[in-house]
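# nightly structure sweep
# worker-07 picked up a monomer target from the shared queue
# config: single-sequence mode, recycle default, output format = structure tokens
# input follows
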Amino acid sequence: MIDFFWRERNPEQLIYAGENSLRLFRREGRRWQERPPLTGFSLTNMNGELPQAPASEWLALPTGLILNPAHFIFNILEFEKLPFNPRAKQELIEWKLKKVFPENIDQYLHQFVPLDSQRVLSLLLRRNLADRLESLCQQKGMPLISITSSTVVLINNLRRQPRLDFIIETDGALAAIVFLNRSRPLYLRKFTSESAADFAAETLKTVQFVKNSYNLNPQRYIATAADSLLDKEQLAQSLQGANCRELPGPMPTFPFIPDNR
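# output follows
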């Protein structure tokens, strides 16, 4: 098992595993081109194989998987000061994680993203899920070279948007909200909703929590929707009382990965 969070090279095709479908992208020149989606599929109901698709859709190319927030456990860990030495830094972070995380972290792939000299964003993904995904790709002759969190990819591509205070990511009934401070993640919450009204209410509750707990006044947001319960108009009405508004302008093109080759 390799550490899938680190990419040794760029994938030639990407698979986004959402709540109810797979979205397949293939690099053509410097651009990603989307193939026909495969609906009625999710990682939670798969039975040992990827869904049937035309042979041309599953190519033996270096492949990257993008998973939605449901499959990751996120923690923002704080320290008095992080060591400069990489090994000492990793040991300190894992020691802190073991103190706050109730399960055995040996059952997870762990990666962390330094945010500043005192904080890191920690991500956990179950090893047995990573093993299963690797096996599924091998069945199609596709070398799996990365597993990426859609939330982290989204943060990387949106956090430097001028005046952006928080990002709302939705997929099906699932939502992840990331609050930023000086373009760096400060607080992250995941939740599920039963309706658009419930989603709007939970979002407002989370905004109020951040205001009260972090002495911030988040107002400007970007919301992404992938076949979800999100009703942008209802959300805007709910957040109006908190003086929040969505930033105007087009969203970056999914899968939010820059064409940097």
